[in-house]
Protein 1
Amino acid sequence: MNTIDLFPASISLRKGAIHRLPDGQGRRIESLSGSLWITIDHDRRDILVNPCKGFDIDRPGAMLISALDDARFVVLHRA
């Protein structure tokens, strides 16, 4: 994937900042830079997304995306 094309649609978070996504089911979080910690309501997993990696959201519920360092990511709709 050419991540340069995704930068205009990306979300930037400073270290320690949090982004709330009301319902992410059926989407994918792709980290363009920085590490992300994802927490989904009623899900006991701790989800860590390293730079240039992604996570497919497999359940409904609000989620919090926390930046473990300065980070940039995109939320993609899975085809």
Protein 2
Amino acid sequence: MGHRRQNIDDAVKLLNKNGINVTKVSNPLETKPIGGIAQAHFLNGVLAAETKLTPKKLLHQIKIIEQQMGRVKYLKNGPRPIDIDILLYGNLKIKTDNLNIPHPEIKKRKFVREPLLQIAPGLKIS
């Protein structure tokens, strides 16, 4: 929602200000929304970052940033100004009610795979 490219730039700035050092950002990729809800196309991208935050604390900080940017969860796959997911965290594997690493949809979503491989060309997605 809103100014999509600016939302991405603003999210990167907020990540950098909150203990998440963004080191690479993919080119944006425009895609149709999934989930059957009529809405504008999405602008997707992937970034690499370094942090001393644990995965749980990283997720918490990401949710705060999403809220600061105006995200309100009221409709699954509905319109939103920003959606930040943790795809990978080093080689960690985590499966809880709130956090799955690696993200279970990486292989299924071209709009995730393409930008991910752009910033990490030799990455093997298992």
